[in-house]
Amino acid sequence: MKVTVLIPGVLRTATDGAAHLDVDVDEPATLAAALDVLADTYPGLDRRLRDERAGLRRYVNFYVNGEECRRLSGPATPLAEGAEIQILPSVAGG
Amino acid sequence: MTVVVAIGTRKGLWLARSEDRVTWEVDGPHHPMQEVYAVAFDTRAGVRLLAGVASPHFGPGVSISDDLGATWEESASPPIAFPVEGAALERVWQLQPAPASQPGVVWAGTQPSALFKSADGGRSFEFVEGLWNHPHRPEWDAGFGGQAVHTIVPDPVDPDRVLVAMSTGGVYRTADGGKSWEARNKGIKAYFFPDPWPEFGQCVHKVAQHPSSPTRFYAQNHHGVYRSDDGGDTWQSIADGLPTDFGFAMVVHPHDPDTIFTFPIEADGRRFPPEGRCRVYRSRDAGESWEPLSAGLPDNFWTAVMRDAMCTDTAEIPGVYFGSRSGEVYASPDEGETWHQVAAHLPDVMSVRAAVLPT
């Protein structure tokens, strides 16, 4: 099934400039599975989103159909056909 | 002669260039908003600049430039990755090219405390399992800055011998290429434990060595300045003559194994130079006596110099360099006799390295 991933401007250097990516992921699909598929094509994007243990980076938010995944089931959040994953970095610091 | 100084800060890397080591041209930031705790010049074949970079948002990595910062290369897959459950790279604290007899070998020290080895000049690294599997590891604790291997001293001759230092944990040494490691902290005090002389657990801030004296090491400890003349087996205090025994940096003169530089800080609970005076201390006799170096350095300097923010170059009359948490960088063209400001108003300086460019 297909889901869409929205890439923020700051990370588009890792997606050859693409702002939307359609990802084909096996069912039953989860956020982690969609990110795994994305990592095969864009490893430079994946390392900015997740560490080497596939942990989500603390200041990167993943909204699944408008809800941040950490309020759902985190990486295990299930995805339905046509789901939209919006990646939004929360740029904190001083 | 052209000298380039790489200045790693909490928010990027700057490069300073000079013909006379008195007036400087500074460019940057490279890698803006990324912490640069580790920077290294690899001058074994050309001049390669390696930077341990870490974005607080998008994670850590290693960036390489073979044209002095005009372009940077960072691999798409993580160059340093933990292959074990429960650990992920947080930050690269040290990048250390091996001696010229081991071309391509670069060591990396990381947070969490681990050692990695590259055989391809820093593009990819392999995990050194022997140190990770050390039975002491569960008892290594985090210092204030995090738990990290921050110092790597490869033996100048024997590729199987390497000494590392970590905070906390102390000094460890291998003689079999990293398969097995022994704690080497005898004589180094850990005042913060009920038994202040433990086998390990010390907070050693920096260890330095001169390649012509492979069995001698100098250490700046979390209170305590030491020398070992037996390859790290035992350590003796060389703090007499310094205004304080606290500090982070320890640097050896590139041509004289008896000459060392440090930047004393008043105390762990008062991290300023004594009386707020910016002073480098130099010993010409392996730490038996010390002299303050002050010509051109300011008073009212209420800041500190971090463990990797001091270095020398390799010129015949070597330059000495340091940067501060307040974003100031100073250079001496004459072994510390006189000092000139290289840069000011940068972010916190975490790492400084210098190279003489080939003519």
Describe the structure.
The complex is a heterodimer of chains A (94) and B (359). Chain A is an alpha+beta fold and 94 residues long. Chain A has one domain (2-89): Roll (Ubiquitin-like (UB roll)), CATH 3.10.20.30. Chain A contains 2 helices and 7 strands. Chain A has helices at residues 31-41, 43-49; strands at 2-6, 20-24, 29-30, 60-64, 67-68, 78-79, 84-89. In chain A, the strands form 2 sheets. In chain A, strands 2-1-7-4-5 form a 5-stranded mixed beta sheet, covered by helices on one side. In chain A, strands 3-6 form a two-stranded antiparallel sheet. Chain A is globular. The mean pLDDT of chain A is 96. With 359 residues, chain B is mainly beta. Chain B has a domain at 93-340: YVTN repeat-like/Quinoprotein amine dehydrogenase (Methylamine Dehydrogenase, Chain H). Helices cover 1% and strands 38% of the residues of chain B. Chain B contains 1 helix and 29 strands. A 4-stranded antiparallel beta sheet of chain B has the order 3-2-1-29, with no helix packed on it. The chains are: A alpha+beta (94), B mainly beta (359). Chain A binds chain B through residues 11, 14, 42-44, 47-49, 51-53, 55, 57, 59-60, 89-93, and chain B through 33, 55-59, 61, 74, 76-78, 81-82, 85-89. Chain B: This is BNR/Asp-box repeat-containing protein. Chain B: InterPro entries: WD40/YVTN_repeat-like_dom_sf, Xyloglucanase_GH74. Chain B: It comes from Lentzea jiangxiensis.
